[in-house]
Amino acid sequence: MENNNLIHNLDGKQVTPGLGYGKFFVFVALAVVIGTAAGFAITKMKKASPQNNSISTAKAVKTVGIADKKTFKDQAEGTLKEGGIDGEGSFHLERPGGPSQNVYLTSSTVDLSQYIGKKVRVWGETFSAEKAGWLMDVGLVEILK
Predict the structure, then answer these.
(1) Distances, alpha carbon 29 to alpha carbons 35, 56, 105, in Å
(2) Is the dihedral of CA 15, 21, 23, 27 positive or negative?
(3) Do β-strands 119-127 and 135-143 pair in parallel, antiparallel, or remain unpaired?
(4) Cβ atoms within 10 A of the Cβ of 57, count?
(5) Span 63-143: which CATH code?
């Protein structure tokens, strides 16, 4: 009888075919699909877990507002206080040098009342004023430490 196997071992022993290429590629494709599904499920569970939500809310927001440096090109830094001067501004920044160095603030984009008493850096647009030395419409607030 003649041996018609195309694969031969060099030792002369007959080699039995194992996994064929088709079965191998099906196995790899199945492993990729199962791995992708498992990864997707794990990320969805992490997003839904209450433990993860408490971590994300514990991180303080550093900046609030519109980061448009073209429109809001002026900046000032100080401690945010409530109150303007003679009807100009609703808030002001206290800065070193006394009341003459205060920046009076108004904002149509950021609720400044949330940052009263905090040291902040603000970006905004300067407006002309009659009483305030510096009147600014705030577009972006950064909380400083």
Answers:
(1) 10, 36, 61
(2) positive
(3) antiparallel
(4) 8
(5) 2.40.50
